[in-house]
Hints:
Layout: H1 5-21, H2 34-73, E1 76-77, H3 87-96, E2 102-104, H4 118-122, E3 128-131, H5 140-163
Helix pairs in contact: 3-5
Amino acid sequence: MKPSNRSNQTMELTASRRTTQLPMSSTRQPMPSSLSLAAAHLGLVRSMRRIVFLLGVSCMLAHAVSAQRTVTDSPHIRVAHPESANPEQDCIRATGRHDLRFVGVAGFALDVPGVPDYQTRYWKINGVKVITGTSDVGDRGFNDAARNYARRYNAQLLKYLSTHKARNAKT
């Protein structure tokens, strides 16, 4: 079947109307000078540098504050004679009470012996309890015994955590 000439003419007429109804305007937008563009770019770069700098400083300060808060606000436990205590048994009793906090030793900074990834993996979930009397100055024998106690306690707690879900942790 061949289309009729009349329908072709109608289509051509409709197409020509559409093109004539859309006039092209030739208004030119003034181009900003290269000097004003450079000034705007420089202002933006300076602002971004300031923002990045302030963001970095605030992150460092926030980390320092949270680390300090962990040391000073942590609960303390009393272990009178860490050299003769049984940390494995103490850990079993604590986990029976749903106390899944690690044991730490105070010094210049908080140390959680035997848990190298404590700060990145456990500090928000489990927390820590610090042995009273430990410090970076003081009785070296007590500090060494407390560090050994904490290492053994934390090893027992890591074994427990690897086989149990830590849903009921007291922090």
